[in-house]
Design goal:
- This protein is an alpha/beta fold.
- The chain has one domain (2-7, 40-83, 113-296): 3-Layer(aba) Sandwich (UDP-N-acetylmuramoyl-L-alanine:D-glutamate ligase), CATH 3.40.1190.
- It has helices spanning 40-50, 65-76, 123-128, 141-153, 170-173, 183-190, 195-202, 243-256, 261-276, 288-296, and strands at 2-7, 11-18, 32-38, 55-62, 84-87, 92-99, 104-109, 130-135, 157-160, 178-179, 208-212, 218-222, 228-230.
- Strands 5-4-1-8-9-10-11-12-13 form a nine-stranded mixed beta sheet, sandwiched between helices. It has a four-stranded mixed beta sheet with strand order 3-2-6-7.
- α1 (40-50) crosses α8, α8 packs antiparallel against α9 and α9 (261-276) packs across α10.
- The radius of gyration is 18 Å and the shape is globular.
- It binds adenosine-5'-triphosphate (ATP).
- It catalyses: D-ribose + ATP = D-ribose 5-phosphate + ADP + H(+).
- It is an enzyme of class 2 (transferase).
């Protein structure tokens, strides 16, 4: 029995650090280049495994060098990769240019992630065995929908991070138990820029909503209950990339352990706050003892 199955993307982030990003036709000398395992699916799997969950990832990597590195990075954090397929062709990549003012420009090439447009035989059984299915939108929508439907058939809790932001069919939202957009994603889904109003609209289709608000924390809303605001921890943020995925991974672990939502949200905020204090998405994700220690203090 697995606690958490993640159905989603794996990308190698190719990150260039430069004083000022080049304009079209311009060549500049950068300061540093790093390859960092990423992709929202792999990020959430990594965060949940480090937070103490028993986690399995359904996804696809290419048969290139990045594919092997992405697989071993997941395994290193304790994620079961038996259902991570290796397909012909390149792995997904995200080409990221970070300038000295913290601004970034990103080109994502889906690569192997684009082959995940359906569930494979056996995936439904893997999902049925879990408590929670984590979904995001970096793989083709038909697979996300198939995963949500499979989870619903087997009474598995579904948690959707609607990123990258895009309008979604009611059929998908209707198969989700908890949706966790950031402010921008909540606005894209509902047309409302006020997070409370956006959460109210989402509650028509999804029973529970958490809107993450960056350094302002998060807002929880459920049908028939007063919304709850959970503050973020006051920390010096170095790099907030992956904060949302760390938050969702830890939240899924806490809810799977039967902790009440306010407690689970407070614990997930500790995990996310720890991750923003260090550079890099997956590399900055905290392990359970560190989260517990921060929570206790
Ligand atoms: P990303 O796309 O960078 O992964 P996101 O936009 O999905 O992030 P955010 O709303 O930025 O998600 O952050 C998720 C959670 O992380 C917040 O609800 C908060 O608990 C925590 N967090 C984010 N930024 C900070 C910060 N500067 N200080 C403390 N906690 C933070």
């Amino acid at each position: 029995m697995t606690d958490i199955v993640v159905l989603g993307s794996t990308n190698m982030d190719l990150v260039t650090y430069v004083e000022k990003a080049p304009q079209r036709g311009e060549t500049v000398t950068g300061r540093e280049f790093r390859t960092i395992p990423g992709g929202k699916g792999a990020n959430q799997a990594t965060a949940a495994a480090r937070a103490g969950g028993d986690v399995l990832m359904i996804g696809a990597v290419g048969n290139d060098a990045y594919g092997a590195q992405l697989r071993s990075a997941l395994e290193h954090s304790g994620v079961d990769t038996d259902d991570l397929r290796t397909v012909e062709g390149p792995s997904g990549t995200a080409h990221i240019v970070v300038d000295d003012e913290g601004g970034n420009a990103i080109v994502v090439i889906p690569g192997a992630n684009a082959t995940l447009d359906h569930l494979s035989p056996g995936d439904e059984g893997v999902i049925a065995d879990a408590d929670t299915l984590l979904l995001q939108l970096e793989i083709p929508l038909p697979a996300v929908l198939a995963g949500a439907r499979a989870a619903r058939r087997h009474g598995v809790r579904t948690v959707l991070t609607p990123s990258p932001a895009r309008p979604l069919p009611d059929e998908l939202l209707g198969a989700i138990d908890l949706i966790v957009p950031n402010e921008h994603e909540a606005a894209t889904l509902t047309g409302r820029t006020d997070p409370r109003e956006a959460a109210g609209v989402l509650l028509d289709l999804v029973p529970e909503v958490v809107v993450t608000l960056g350094a302002s924390g998060s807002l929880y809303a459920a049908r028939g209950a007063e919304p709850l605001t959970v503050p973020a921890l006051e920390v010096t943020a170095v790099d907030s990339t992956g904060a949302g995925d760390t938050f969702v991974g830890a939240l899924a672990v806490a809810l799977g352990e039967g902790r009440p939502m306010p407690d689970a949200l407070a614990w997930a905020s500790c995990a996310a706050a720890l991750s923003v204090q260090r550079e890099g998405a997956t590399v900055s994700m905290p392990y359970r003892p560190e989260i517990d220690e921060r929570y206790a203090s």
